[in-house]
From TrEMBL:
GO cellular component terms listed in the entry, alphabetical order: cytoplasm; nucleus
Key words, A-Z: Cytoplasm, GTP-binding, Nucleotide-binding, Nucleus
Protein name as catalogued: VLIG-type G domain-containing protein
PROSITE patterns: G_VLIG
Region of interest (Disordered), ranges: 1-20
Example of a GO MF term: GTP binding
Main localization of the protein described in the UniProt heading: cytoplasm
Gene3D superfamilies attached to this UniProt entry: P-loop containing nucleotide triphosphate hydrolases
Compartments where located: Cytoplasm; Nucleus
Cytoplasm found in the keyword field: yes
PANTHER family attached to this UniProt entry: INTERFERON-INDUCED VERY LARGE GTPASE 1-RELATED (PTHR22796:SF6), URG4-RELATED (PTHR22796)
Pfam families xrefs: URGCP, URGCP_9th, URGCP_GTPase
């Protein structure tokens, strides 16, 4: 292309080096429009308009943040569509698509353009043109065509710079870092789009590091700001037909367009933001002979005409080592000559490259000036010549000053260029970082870490080792465990003595209100830490790798020589040195974590400085920095620290749902690189060294896609490589890999399995580890998913090869599954039996990362495509998946890591989220069953009265079912809502069917029991019908006789004494007639009757002799039962002493039998029917049946045992039946019954004599008939209300059984009574009943104003209201006909649920009553008297008659709160599941030292102090009765009674029972006649546990 040789700046050819227009200063300053170079208005588009076109207006200026772009947004889902769609891109898509691709390392980001339809329409138009050749060759139409397509297109570099101008400093830095990774030139001098300001964005370079290697030398890696290298500056004079940028690319990297040029895809003649931009790139040699240059060199490129950017040219040439000027010809204008003259006169080499000059000998002018012609040149030859010239010039300038970005920033200020790092916030962050660095300086670099971060070194590693030992106990288990814990406490004490100066200096910089200041500080701290340790780290690392290479060579000889051992020792020493000089922000945060964990063990002494550490780490995690999850050096998870940090994250963000994505793979397989490219993250990328850690980073999900994804954050967990070089061949390496794989697969919703290449051996190694981890997850009911990623696959486009690869992978997965299933004792043949997996969609093949050979190779765009496809697959898999909340994730981390520490992960895994959900289910189950029980109690009371009233003569369970149906439906609805709408519905679903079934069973059982009780009542009612009718008859006769007597005495004036004399005379005569008619009930000697029954079952002399010796009275609490057993014949043993387990089994038989007998005794209605021999017979039969069912392997029970046990329970029956029979006799002997009524009848008689109307007297009579019913109703309602109030308000009763157990233990500790403890240990069921009764008494019956009185009074008020309503309704409906009989009928109908009927008034005369209103008035008045009298009975607790309760409130509570009663086979602790017959295995939180129940060491008298939860983590063994030994670690193999328990290792202090053993040591030794000596020695540390410690430990 030709060009005029003499043109003014306004007449320049349009074809400059990038085929671009520039913006005039006036247009830039005014932001009105763009001027063409000839001075005419080009188009009416101002800069903000371009920003709007790119949809960036909301972010201009510097408002686009890293968080905005790295969040998962709608763009994340649209990329795939945008990549594959056939329709043109929209302008508003360009900027975000560019940024997305750039951050995923796709260098084609710069080539994104709007696909114009212009070309297509032009082609279509040609089909309609003339076929005339002359027309076809006509140039006029072509030149004058109206195609303005170029004016519409947005230049790709304008997109980049528009985003750059809108980005904040941190996103700019990220952008430039990614541009550098893509091997693109970086903005060095950036003109402002709205002013004449020029900016040097030094801050954007701070994260970039460059690595190079000289031929035969060692590699060098430096931050670019610290690189001091020669700099070659390129510029052009005027308009040139040759592309300067393209020429420069051929020099730096012929295979990649480092600088964007006119022939790059998407380039156009228009651009807005490129004019005056200076870009920089570094050439980095690889250490090969074919390197273009042998050293690192910086190349700078000025866009635009150099004469119009004098300041920039001066600035650049001042620092340049070699200046290169590109010109069209040798006739520059005056300004051009002036610039050339200046460069020519400089001491620095000048290379003039002339477009119109033909090739000739290199023209060397004065002072190293060279001319190179381009015209008609072979490009390869030209490039070679240019490279050679530059190399020669650089060699000549070897001693010249080198270029440094750091130094150039100071020079920039003298040119009045703005340096971005001069901002106030940036400087504040830098100052803070330097203050921290100042503390570190001044000593040996290799000792800084040990000095300032002492907690995380040997101390933390030793603590971690000891913590793991707690799960692998040996010898005297509790002694060993106690020593380990004391050692751990000692380490924490040392950590607490650590100076906080460094941490305070760091944390001080997190008090800034502006988040940007905090982030500047973090970045600056990283920069300066790198600078401080860079040199030493580089030196030691190179020594390490050299030593590693030497060791690998020696390994190949397969001989373990002294030299080999020395090399190994030296390598280990160098490894420690590398650790010592590796110092980053993550180590500071790790130190914070260790200090925090140390102080967390003494929270009352923790300072405000330390308590702020989790908030600092939380801020870092939220702002996008990785947080160490598993310590890289100790291979341990600091649980307390991680949980506290996540608490703070939850506090700041809310309890958000998170989808966890983890990655597993071999060392240096590209895991971190993949995650960084996929999500734009900042995980450290390095090869060779394995720090054995895991880091997590949060990615926000924008609101626009939350409905689609169903979670709020993506949590990415990056892990260090499996089979690291440092661990190969060591058993610890395999253990570590298994721990890591198990931990991260359990934590993740989706795990990426990263495999480098398709090496079968490597694949087999990692797949075996991974499959085993997934198999473990299946066994503990966790359901993660996985995807496989094959990296560095040579030909990923070959479909057939991929299909074969998938087939081989599937085969290998199945093989490894079968192998792992055998090891894990699990049935699984195929990988799909273990995890949901699709071989077609869950396997991804990746191209190799680099397009060529590093360090100058850009990332392979195919790799970026693969990354994007994988990301889309992950998001699709994640969409809608049920995820954990942050609070739940915290719990899951603890559960997993605690289980990982155990040798048996599956059996040790305790899913606390499941446990918490199940505990809530237990509480809800208690509420549901209480609703049923409460309603049925009300129904039972009502039906009881119906039976008493004679309204029901037979009980059909259907009747009760119908009465209860409404409540049952409500309960079923509440159950359904709970299981479907609860936040843990997915977890709870596994118990739904069983719970619903159990509620149906409860419903059925309650109905059945109630129907049975009411049927018994009907039978009793029938049996005493004659007696009841007689009582009613006699009452009515008495009423009539007293009424007749009063009528005869009305005319006489008599005082009360005279009245009583007359009444007594009548009463005596009437009773005399009654006695003659009906003799009194004969009394029964219950005791003698019971003895007679026993004599009929057993030999009489045995019964009476055993009873006389009173030996049987100790049956219940005996320690030894040897005298009651006979050894089985096949055992030839002279003597046999029962072991603890045998005695416990017999004692349990006694206790269960006594409880069953007591239940029989309690249910017998002796007070209603009188004593019957059948009752005693039933009790004795129960004893005989229980004893007959008892089975023991080595002995049988003697007959004396059955005799004594029968005597024991019959003693209880005699006492109870004797008292109840007296009640029956008093209630049913008419004479005694009526004697008790004498006062009531005298009161009626007296009123009649005093002139009371017949209506008033009758009203009194009716209300007196009602009085017992009212009283009973009050007591019945009070029983239910008091039980409900206790259940609701008393904390021990308002939760599940675990909660109740905790309060029982707390109560025992506060009472500090050994006898109470022993009662609880040996008979927990009875103790629970006693506890409930005691607490009921304490809460309801004691105090100045016992609560039961208030409840009773409230019940009286409610009863008063209901009876008053009945009176009112009866009056309203009968007042017209004035029929008293009708009134009574209506009244009794309203009180149908009370024990009152019209039959109760049969024989009473009331026919003379005609005034219904007056009857209404008198009845209300009489009722008020009855109510007042009843209320007055409840003024003090002594007047409360507990025997009136049909069901006592405490008995209702006992039935409601009883759950599972199965005891731990080792320590006899009771399963605390609320639901009797529950799903799953039995469990209890507070296991006990075995000696608490009398267990001793084998063949000794030493009581055992070991706790079950410690033993299952030890090498101790169980000695079974048949002398078999079973390891505690596999205790479930000891038999069914063991296998039904879930006992997991517990490393907590478990202070409660340890305190009990120490507090009552002598009592226990005396009680069991054994000692805590030898192997039963109590650890000394236990003795420091106080009662308060014990009680506090219950609040787990």
């Amino acid at each position: 292309m030709s060009s005029s040789t003499n043109m003014s700046s306004t007449e320049k050819n349009l074809h400059n080096d990038d085929s671009s227009y520039r913006i005039t200063e006036a247009a830039v300053q005014d932001s009105v429009g763009q001027m063409s170079e000839d001075g005419t208005q080009n188009e009416d588009v101002n800069i903000p308009d371009l920003i709007c076109r790119l949809n960036l207006s909301n972010f201009y200026q510097h408002k686009l943040t890293t968080a905005d772009e790295l969040s998962i947004s709608r763009t994340s889902f649209q990329i795939e569509k945008l990549q594959t769609q056939k329709e043109p891109l929209k302008e508003e898509d360009l900027a975000f698509l560019y940024l997305h691709k750039l951050l995923t390392l796709d260098y084609r980001a710069k080539y994104i353009t709007i696909n114009s339809t212009g070309v297509r329409s032009d082609i279509e138009e040609t089909f309609h043109m003339t076929e005339d050749l002359n027309d076809f060759l006509n140039e006029h139409d072509y030149n004058n065509s109206n195609n303005d397509n170029d004016n519409i297109l947005i230049h790709p570099m304008d997109v980049q710079m528009a985003v750059f101008h809108c980005a904040d400093s941190f996103l700019r830095q990220n952008m430039v870092t990614k541009l550098s990774s893509c091997q693109y030139a970086l903005p060095l001098l950036v003109p402002s789009p709205t002013s004449t300001d020029i900016e040097l964005p030094l801050w954007t370079f701070r994260q970039i590091k460059k690595t190079w290697k000289s031929v035969g030398g060692l590699s060098t890696s430096l931050p670019v700001c610290q690189i001091k290298a020669p700099m070659v500056f390129f510029c052009r004079l005027g308009s040139v037909s040759t592309s300067k940028s393209q020429l420069l690319n051929s020099v730096i990297n012929p295979k990649h367009n480092t600088f964007f040029h006119r022939d790059s895809p998407g380039s156009s003649k228009n651009h807005l933001f490129m004019e005056g931009l200076v870009e920089i790139a570094w050439y980095c040699p690889a250490g090969n002979n074919d390197d273009i240059f042998k050293e690192c060199i910086a190349f700078c490129n000025l866009h635009g005409d150099a004469v119009e950017h004098k300041e920039k040219v001066d600035y650049m040439t001042e620092q340049a080592t070699v200046n290169i000027v590109l010109m069209q010809n040798l006739k520059p204008d005056e300004k051009g000559k002036e610039l050339l003259l200046k460069l020519h006169c400089s001491s620095k080499p000048l290379i003039c490259v002339i477009s119109d000059l033909k090739k000739g000998p290199l023209k060397m002018g004065n002072k190293n000036s060279i001319k190179i012609g381009l015209k008609h040149r072979n490009q390869a030859e030209l490039h070679k010549e240019l490279i050679s010239v530059i190399s020669n010039c650089l060699q000549k300038c070897n001693s010249a000053p080198t270029f440094s970005l750091e130094a150039s920033s100071e020079l920039a200020k003298s040119y009045r260029f703005r340096v971005d790092e001069d901002s106030q916030e940036c400087q504040a962050g830098k100052t803070g970082a330097l203050e921290v660095i100042k503390l570190l300086k001044g000593g040996d670099i290799s000792r800084i870490k040990a000095k300032f971060l002492p907690c995380q070194g040997k101390l933390w590693q030793e603590w971690s080792r000891k913590n793991k030992e707690q799960y692998r106990l040996y010898g005297d288990v509790e002694q060993t465990k106690s020593k380990i814990q004391e050692h751990m406490k000692s380490i924490r004490n040392q950590q607490r003595r650590t100076s906080l100066d460094l941490m305070k200096a760091v944390c001080k910089n997190f008090t800034f209100k502006q988040n940007s200041k905090k982030m500047y500080f973090v970045k600056w701290l990283g920069v300066h830490l790198d600078l401080l340790f860079l040199e030493k780290l580089s030196e030691v690392t190179q020594q390490y790798y050299k030593q590693l290479s030497d060791l690998q060579l020696l390994k190949q000889k397969r001989e373990i020589t002294d030299e080999f051992r020395k090399k190994e020792e030296e390598l280990e020493r160098l490894s420690e040195k590398v650790d010592a000089v590796t110092f980053g922000l993550e180590h500071i945060v790790r130190e914070m974590g260790q200090i925090y964990e140390a102080w967390a063990e003494t929270p009352d002494r923790m300072t405000a400085d330390v308590s702020a550490f989790p908030a600092v780490a939380a801020d870092l995690l939220i702002s996008g920095h990785p947080l160490e999850l598993m310590d890289g050096d100790a291979a341990h998870v600091p649980l307390t620290w991680i949980q506290s940090v996540l608490d703070k994250v939850t506090e700041r963000l809310g309890d958000q749902r998170v989808f966890v994505l983890s990655v597993l793979g071999l060392q240096s397989s590209g895991k971190s690189t993949m995650l960084n490219a996929m999500f734009g993250l900042q995980f450290a990328v390095s090869a060779g060294r394995c720090t054995r850690g895991a880091f997590m980073q949060l990615i926000r999900v924008k609101e626009e896609v939350k409905d689609q994804l169903k979670f709020d954050y993506l949590l990415v967990v990056d892990t260090e490589g499996l089979q690291s070089l440092q661990l190969v061949g060591k058993q610890s390496g395999l253990t570590h890999d298994n721990e890591l794989a198990t931990f991260v697969t359990g934590l993740a919703d989706l795990t990426l399995i990263n495999i480098k290449g398709e090496n079968p051996a490597e694949m087999k190694n990692i797949i075996q580890i991974v499959v085993q981890a997934f198999l473990r997850m299946k066994k503990v009911k966790l359901t993660p998913s996985c995807m496989f990623v094959h990296q560095n696959v040579a030909d990923i486009s070959a479909g057939e090869k991929n299909m074969e690869g998938r087939r081989q992978l599937h085969k290998l997965l199945d093989e490894m599954t079968h192998l792992a299933a055998t090891q894990e004792v699990c049935n699984a043949e195929f990988f799909t039996d273990v995890i949901k997996f699709n071989i077609q969609t869950d396997v991804h093949y990746f191209a190799q990362l680099w397009e060529g050979n590093p360090p100058m190779a850009p990332p392979n765009p195919r790799y970026s495509e693969n990354i994007e496809n994988l990301k889309q697959a992950i998001l699709k898999a994640a969409a809608g998946k049920k995820c954990l909340k942050l609070s739940e994730l915290k719990v899951r981390i603890k559960d997993l890591w605690t289980a990982v520490l155990n040798e048996n992960f599956v059996f040790s895994f305790k899913n606390c989220l499941e446990i918490a959900a199940y505990r809530r289910l237990e509480v809800m189950y208690g509420n549901w069953t209480w609703e049923l029980r409460k309603e049925l109690l009300l129904i039972e009371n009502k039906l009881h009265n119906w039976v008493e009233n004679g309204k029901v003569v037979a009980i059909d369970p259907k009747l009760i079912h119908e009465e209860l149906s409404s409540t049952f439906c409500d309960v079923k609805n509440k159950t359904e809502i709970f299981f479907t709408e609860d936040k843990d519905a997915e977890i709870l679903s596994q118990w739904k069917v069983r719970t619903e079934k159990r509620i149906k069973e409860i419903h059925h059982n309650l109905i059945e029991v109630t129907a049975k009780k009411l049927t018994e009542l009907i039978k009793m009612k029938a049996a005493r019908k004659t007696l009841d009718d007689k009582k009613t008859q006699y009452e009515n006769e008495l009423f009539n006789k007293s009424k007749d007597l009063a009528s005869g005495l009305k005319s006489e004036v008599m005082n009360e004494t005279s009245l009583r004399t007359e009444f007594n005379s009548m009463w005596g005569k009437w009773l005399s007639d009654l006695r003659a008619e009906m003799p009194p009930i004969i009394d029964v000697s219950v005791e003698q009757e019971v003895m007679n029954i026993l004599s009929s079952y057993f030999e009489s002399h045995n019964i009476y002799s055993n009873r006389g010796s009173a030996h049987y009275k100790r049956m219940y609490k005996r320690r030894e039962y040897c005298e009651y057993v006979t050894l089985k014949k096949h055992l030839v043993v002279i003597s046999y002493i029962l072991d603890i387990k045998d005695n416990d089994s017999i004692r349990e038989l006694v206790q269960e039998t006594v409880r069953e007998a007591e239940e029989i005794i309690r249910t017998k209605p002796v007070d209603k029917t009188g004593y019957s021999d059948a009752y005693t017979q039933e009790i004795v039969n129960c004893v005989k049946k229980r004893v007959a069912e008892f089975k023991a392997e080595k002995f049988t029970l003697k007959n004396e045992f059955t005799v004594d046990l029968s005597l024991y329970v019959c003693d209880i029956a005699v006492r109870r039946f004797t008292d109840l029979h007296k009640v029956f006799r008093d209630a049913n002997d008419p004479v005694i019954y009526l004697e008790n009524k004498k006062g009531e009848f005298f009161s009626i008689f007296k009123k009649q004599c005093e002139g009371a109307t017949a209506t008033a007297v009758f009203a009194d009579f009716v209300c007196n008939k009602l009085k017992p019913s009212i009283l009973q109703s009050v007591y019945d309602k009070t029983a239910i209300d008091a039980a409900e109030e206790m259940r609701t308000n008393y904390t021990a009763f308002n939760g599940n059984r675990s909660n109740l157990e905790k309060h029982i233990l707390q109560d025992l500790a506060e009472a500090e009574s050994f006898q109470l403890f022993i009662t609880y240990i040996e008979d927990p069921k009875n103790y629970l009943s006693d506890f409930i009764e005691a607490k009921f008494k304490q809460q309801m019956l004691e105090g100045r104003n016992p609560r039961i009185l208030e409840i009773l009074k409230n019940a009286v008020k409610m009863k008063h209201s209901s009876v008053s309503t009945a009176i009112q309704k009866a009056t309203q409906e009968t007042k017209q006909n004035k029929d008293v009989h009708k009134w009574l009928e209506r009244f009794s109908q309203e009180l149908k649920d009370d024990k009152f009927t019209l039959k109760d008034l049969k024989g009473a005369y009331y026919q003379e009553i005609t005034d219904i209103d007056f009857l209404h008035k008198m009845t209300n008045k009489a009722l008020q008297c009855i109510i007042n009298e009843t209320t007055s009975c409840f003024e003090n607790i002594s007047s409360v008659r507990m025997n009136v309760f049909r069901q006592r409130p405490e008995d209702i509570l006992i039935k409601q709160l009883c759950g599972c009663w199965v005891q731990c086979p080792f320590c006899a602790a009771i399963c605390t599941n609320t639901i009797e017959g529950h799903d799953g295995k039995h469990s209890v939180h507070f296991h006990r030292p075995e000696g608490v129940t009398g267990w001793k060491w084998y063949k000794t008298d030493n009581l055992a102090v070991d706790i079950c939860t410690s033993l299952v983590a030890s090498n101790a063994k169980i000695v079974l009765p048949d002398k078999r030994f079973v390891p505690y670690r596999t205790y479930w193999k000891a038999g069914p009674e063991y296998a039904c328990w879930n006992i997991t290792p517990d490393t907590s202090e478990q202070a409660y029972w340890k305190w009990f053993v120490c507090r009552f040591q002598r009592d226990l030794e005396k009680y069991y006649e054994k000692t805590f000596k030898g192997r039963g020695q109590i650890p000394e540390a236990w003795r420091s546990i106080t009662r308060n410690n014990a009680i506090e430990s219950l609040n787990y």
